[in-house]
Write a structure and sequence with these properties.
Length: 340
């Protein structure tokens, strides 16, 4: 009597293995679409104003993100279409699955390094302890990822992946720890930049909210992948979560790069003033009739006359220390929110 596919691999559940990978790829494609939108917004709002390093960083992450999507799509297509009902092929690890792990090892440390560079910038004039600690954590995490990739290329069938559970736990744990340290460092540096000026402090609060939210997304996804790997090591749900983790890292970094744009869009007005903050923001043309233009010119003359009177008869004193503090804070906020 011929053996059926169920006899060959009795423990294989298509729904929780390759079905989970299919769902993961579908959601990852949606997240890739979001990263395309965010990259478009970044380049539209930073025309001729962005630093070359961060422009290249966005392009680098987008290319890796597109390559990662192509690899995981090929992986699922290989198992569910090309080798449909081929039980023996379902047990083998295709080359695209291994290569997408390498792309993972480039995307996540790259995003962490870009975060670390931003921390280095906004900590200018302060202690460099935080960016150094972040770089050390990133280096350790990269070393674990390299070791995990080397061990992965020694595996040829999916049951061999069970032997690599320790590496998965360590890698995901260090990734989550790095997310927490980076988010905490950024929030600390921003919180210590408060000046008591409502407009500046409000923008600081919004940026801190973006940092916490994006950091929580990646951390929750990492912890979920680790928990599913521990609880359900024989299915591929944790692999599907890792597909999503890479996309969330790209989206979270791009969201932080566009944080100032989102803050201004939510405000609806130009309430948040930063040096050079007018760069890269769409400003519609205002058409004024001739009569309105004459009134505007007259009002400007009145303003200049008023300012002349104020310079002769000052009605209030100027607080130079407060002005210097506000200027310093806004310069720091400019480094953070418009450096990209």
């Amino acid at each position: 009597m011929s053996s059926s596919p169920q006899d060959l691999i009795p423990q294989l559940d298509i729904g929780t293995t390759f079905g989970a990978l299919f769902i993961g790829v579908t959601i990852a494609a949606v997240l890739f679409g979001l990263s395309n939108i965010q990259a478009f917004i970044y380049f539209q709002t930073h025309k001729n104003t962005g630093i070359l390093f961060f422009n290249l960083a966005v392009i680098w992450l987008w290319i890796l993100d597109a390559l990662h999507l192509a690899l995981i799509v090929h992986c699922v297509y290989y198992y569910l279409v090309i080798n449909y009902a081929n039980v023996n092929a379902l047990m083998e690890i295709v080359w695209s699955f291994k290569l997408q792990i390498i792309v993972d090892a480039f995307i996540i440390p790259s995003a962490h390094l870009f975060y670390g560079y931003r921390i280095w910038i906004i900590s200018k004039g302060r202690s460099r302890t935080l960016p150094i600690i972040v770089c050390m954590i990133i280096t350790i995490n990269s070393g674990v990822a390299i070791a995990l990739i080397w061990a992965l290329y020694q595996c040829h069938v999916f049951p061999d992946l069970i032997k690599l559970q320790w590496g998965t736990y360590v890698a995901l744990g260090l990734t989550t720890f790095a997310d927490i340290v980076i988010a905490s460092s950024m929030c600390y540096l921003l919180a210590t930049s408060r000046t008591g000026v409502s407009s500046t402090d409000s923008l600081i609060t919004k940026l801190m909210a973006y940092i916490i939210n994006t950091g929580c997304l990646t951390s929750v996804c990492s912890v979920t992948a680790m928990i599913t790997c521990i609880v359900m090591p024989t299915n591929f749900i944790f692999l599907a979560m890792e597909f999503l983790l890479v996309k969330l890292y790209v989206n979270s970094f791009l969201a932080l790069m566009n944080a100032r744009y989102y803050a201004r869009a939510n405000a609806g007005t130009d309430n948040f003033y930063l040096p050079n903050s007018y760069h890269g923001v769409y400003r519609p043309r205002i058409h004024i009739r001739a009569s309105e233009d004459e009134e505007l010119q007259a009002s400007r003359k009145d303003v200049f006359k008023y300012l002349h009177d104020e310079s002769v008869h000052p009605s209030r004193s100027v607080k130079p220390q407060e002005s210097i503090a506000v200027t310093t804070a806004t310069m720091e906020m400019n480094d953070f929110s418009s450096v990209g």
